[in-house]
Fold this protein.
Amino acid sequence: MPLQYKMDILQALKDKGYNTNRLRKEKLISESVLQKLRHSEPVSWSNIEQLCKLLECQPADIMEYVEDNAS
């Protein structure tokens, strides 16, 4: 996957005071998105937008393009 997370998103959220219970309870991020983040799987642009809002950052702060040399 050419787009990769540059950080542990769940840990970054925890550092900002958003544990998984709070994220679910306040409906900030769905359980399915949390599961994808646990496994470093891609999420939608709207979820990236929400992550940037919660982490007070830009998409480039959490994601990077890494060329896939498998081709």
About this structure: The two ends are 12 Å apart (CA to CA).
